[in-house]
Please model this.
Amino acid sequence: MDSQKISVSRLVIKALVLFVVLNLVFAALDLTPAIGRLTLYNWLLPGRERLPYGDDPMSAYNLNLYNLEAMFASHKVAGRPKAVDEFRVLVIGDSAVWGFLLAHEDTLTGALNAADLRTADGRRVVFYNLGHPTISLTKDLMILDYAMQYDPDLILWPVTLEAFPISKQTSSPLVQNNADRVRALIETYGLPLDSNSPDFEEQDFWSRTIIGQRRNLADILRLQFYGFMWAATGIDVYISEEIDLRAVDLEAGEEYAGLQPPELRTDDVAFEVLAAGVRRAGDVPVLIVNEPIFVSDGANSEIRYNSFYPRWAYDDYRVLLQGKAEQHGWAYVDLWQVVDNSEFTNTPIHLTPQGTLQLADAIMAELRDAFDLQP
Amino acid sequence: MTLTQIFIFAALGLAAGRFYKVISRGWLLFAASVLAVFWLQTASLIRSLPFLFPVASLGLAALVWSLTLPKEYTGSKEDGWAAGALGGLVLLVAATRYIEAASGLLAVRPPQIEFAVIVVATLALVGFVGYRLGRGRGLLLNGVALLIIAVLIIFKFEPLGRMASSGLRTLTRQDAGLASSFDLGWLGFSYIAFRLIHVLRDRLGGRLPQVSLRDFVTYIVFFPALTAGPIDRVERFTPQSHGEFKLGGEHLFAAGQRLTIGLFMKFVLADGLAFFALNAANAWQTESAGWMWVLLLAYTFRIFFDFAGYTHIAIGLGILFGVVLSENFDRPYLKQNITAFWNSWHMTLAQWFRAYYFNPLTRWLRTRGVRVWLIILVSQLTTMALIGLWHGITWNFLAWGLWHGVGLFVHNQWVQFSKARPGGVDPNLAQPLGVAATFAFVTIGWVWFALPGPQDAARVFGVLFGMN
Model:
């Protein structure tokens, strides 16, 4: 009986010790990023057309996660070394770029790729959707910083005022859960952001153990499993049959992101982040695009363009952005009104497939003029 | 069962040795099983149902026990204690309504204690009347068996389930317009019903051993086997559920092995495959035959790992409490023919149908002078159709059952045919070919099982075989 008791307690103790040691080693080596790179995509499963994001994973075969390594490892951009005849364009930005409520073939990059553009020397222009459905220039910068390893020839960066306010820079969960990366960017580019923002999800030693990382590890695993349905169906977004359209009749308020009229000042918005992005791209040209917005003609439309923007703030933003672009010599095009009002879906920046085609046409005109990319 | 519930049961099993000093194993298993019926019961939108379903499970168990007692039974102290303990435990559960710390232990708050007292008193009265008047009466035993089957049909047939839900909602003054068969989630009833029918039939056949109320209730609602079987036999189970037991190294090793395999099968393999196993939604979203086969294969392995995983968990937990439950799976996807498959897939269900439907039917048909091949055809088809319908009364479950019935009949005829003509296929070739053919047959059959309607199945077959 005693020997049995001893063997039972030994078994339990050994198992516990092994588990503790594994956790400590896992945390010491900070293995989660390495595990994120382990992927079924781009060899067993086709790479995704856009970064993982999904509010309804079971229907979208897609999910939200914060591990950039895993997100990029699942994207087709990570699966293909750039071919000799490829001109690679990375498209970063918000949910309008990602293609909220749009099938991947109907997104901006889908429309641009369908146009089958060529460079003057005959290279195929291939656009990669690296948008992510949260609005923050800092989030875009972080994605750009990571994506530069994929050897782009051009960066296309559609933006809208919502991504600019300083107060919104760290509100994206993707930013909050990648505090170390963002801090490095703040330091490198001297960004006017608080490195110790309470928005950041801090990671101590214990949160890097297997137990601390269980949610992230489960997300990485789920991303692989959903890859099978992505491969089988080509579905990566859930599009509800009934969509609540963007508001036409608007609230009367003129405040914007805690700012009051009459004037939007340069230091209210994060132009430094935009500048950092251009610096990070180095020799790779960046085309900044001011995204189209819905312009309401309903109640209070004399003081607001839409539910996002009071007129004073948006008008000032356009003037400021134009000025910055001229000052720094950025490639910039303002396309705020190139899409018909009927082609906006649930927010003032989300487009229908038809609206996306209108935007793509306008962008292609700019690409033709500025970069000599022709259909 | 959730992971948390499994770990709590396992911890209880590890610690049970200490309790045996205070309370005997038979009583501990009884009390734990009775309380677990309430704990495991899932929520329902119909008021009080998550309390009444477990009470009904226990009430039915007690009623069937009293009806199946031998006529010469004159009562025993232990059974009296068991009846008292059963009522007391139900009231104890009801009393948690008033204990803040106990809120959250059950899926929903129990009803008022007055209501629980009335329910317990009613059941006690029914049990007493059954005991005094009904013991061993064939008509009554058959009547109760039919009643159980009728309830099973209501729960398995969506329109009837919706009607029942509507009635219950009206009784509880809830919106009958929201009635749904999903309201009627009676945990483990499919298994409880088959255990009860087995007992009733064996009593009628004079094969039932006398069992104490305590052991009988434990047999019906033994918590490791409540949610997904196996459907053990009472004479095999009850001798194990009481008496001396000391958890030793060999038990711990066996239980640990079973639990590890079961948890891995269920929560890693099955739950992982569930992400892309065939279902009603992805059946219409998938256009390529290759990927449709992948989804179907994922379902094929998912259902095995899910079910076999639960069985390993149930057996592992049982071992910790000194009860070795029946095996339910024996590498079914590696069997050489469909008959061998059904001897190794959900074995206790197949054995149940063999004992209480197939064998009696074939015996009866023989006495009617029906030709042998026709007896086999009718028996196989109807048995498998019933096994299909046990999962739910739908066209697809029926088709799945008939598919297997035809398979079993064809295999039977093939065996007869082969016997008459020795030689034939090289055995070295026959085995892998047989395994592959059986696996393909079973896999194709899962199309009906996985999908809710014939249109869904037709669509999947169309894609699988390039007929779209």
Remarks:
- The mean pLDDT of chain B is 92.
- DSSP finds 19 helices and no strands in chain B.
- The radius of gyration of chain B is 24 Å.
